[in-house]
Design a protein that fits this description.
Elements: H1 6-9, E1 16-20, H2 25-36, E2 40-44, H3 48-61, E3 65-68, H4 76-89, E4 95-98, H5 113-144, E5 147-148, E6 151-152, E7 156-163, H6 175-195, E8 200-207, H7 216-222, H8 224-228, H9 239-250, E9 261-264, H10 277-282
Parallel strand pairs: 1-2, 1-4, 2-3, 4-7, 7-8, 8-9
Antiparallel strand pairs: 5-6
Helix pairs in contact: 2-3, 2-9, 4-5, 5-6
Length: 283
């Protein structure tokens, strides 16, 4: 009989994980969750200092480990170097979490073409590049998990950190960001349809409001109360929320899920419209 205890079903112990943009924000939240649950986590970000500082913090937590490999993922050459360095250290990659990204806002009449290209490159194109280059390690992890009949017992996982702004039009003019996140969710579904034969799942997480550096300007401009009014659960996301979602998709509990988009947004996407009280009474 299979072990259906929570410890077995949701375990990521001893899995090898790569988290891009893992030195801060949502990436650090995710990396922390995996390290605290016994995984071996590689983090990457542009700043060597930030990567090393985060890795030191997480290694103090344990019981898993954290290894920094700094890289500027906006550059194709750096993506290749990252995978080459990872391949020297590991023969398999159980989980790839594509989290690194950037944002930029500006009026539509003044939105620079160069900025649009920069955001699309990092937030979408280089995610494809990294996933493509990691395929040998991901395929090796799927094979190492064993095959039962024609099915992989423990598929490798690719998780793309997307955004609710790729689904719902935001209040701010972040055209390139929303286009990239919408494209990322469709890319995830496309990858899911083609990579299953290799024992690799692909899913995306549409993140709502989290207390991060990227979110800070919006919270400051609109005010936290105004933001929370759009979230039925009346709070921003916590580290446990996003780490838990990623661990779920990476564990035995999520082994039969591929091509899905999981909204981790406190209900933002299904928030009831706020209308005038008098109009509401007539309805």
């Amino acid at each position: 009989m299979q072990d259906l205890t929570l410890g077995a079903v949701f375990s990521v112990k001893d899995k090898t994980v790569l988290v891009t943009g893992g030195s801060r924000g949502i990436g650090k939240m995710i990396a922390t969750g995996f390290v605290e649950n016994g995984a071996k986590v590689y983090i990457t970000a542009r700043s060597q200092e930030d990567c090393e500082a985060t890795a030191a913090d997480l290694n103090d937590l344990g019981p898993g480990t954290c290894c920094p490999i700094p890289a500027d993922l906006s550059k194709q050459t750096e993506v290749k170097r990252l995978v080459e360095e990872l391949s020297k250290k590991e023969n398999v990659l159980h989980v790839l979490i594509n989290n690194a990204g950037t944002n930029w806002g500006g009026r539509i009449d003044e939105f620079p073409d160069t900025v649009f290209s920069k955001v699309m490159t990092l937030n979408l194109q280089r995610i494809f590049t990294l996933t493509q280059l990691c395929l040998p390690l991901l395929r090796a992890a799927a094979l190492a998990g064993g095959i039962e009949g024609q099915a992989y017992k423990d598929p490798a996982r690719v998780i793309h950190i997307a955004s609710v702004n790729g689904i719902k039009v935001p209040v701010n003019e972040t055209y390139a960001y929303t286009a990239a996140k919408a494209g990322l969710m469709q890319l995830s579904r496309h990858l899911a349809g083609y990579l299953a034969i290799d024992g690799i799942t692909s899913n995306s997480i549409a993140c709502g409001a989290f207390s991060t550096k990227m979110m800070a300007p919006l919270l400051k401009t609109l005010g936290e109360d105004a933001v929370l009014k759009q979230i039925p659960l009346s709070r921003v996301g916590s580290p446990e929320d996003i780490a838990g979602a990623c661990i779920y998709l990476s564990s035995r509990a999520g082994a039969y899920i591929s091509g899905a988009t999981l909204a981790v947004d406190g209900g933002y996407l299904v928030c009831k419209p706020i209308i005038d009280t008098q109009v509401s009474a007539k309805l």
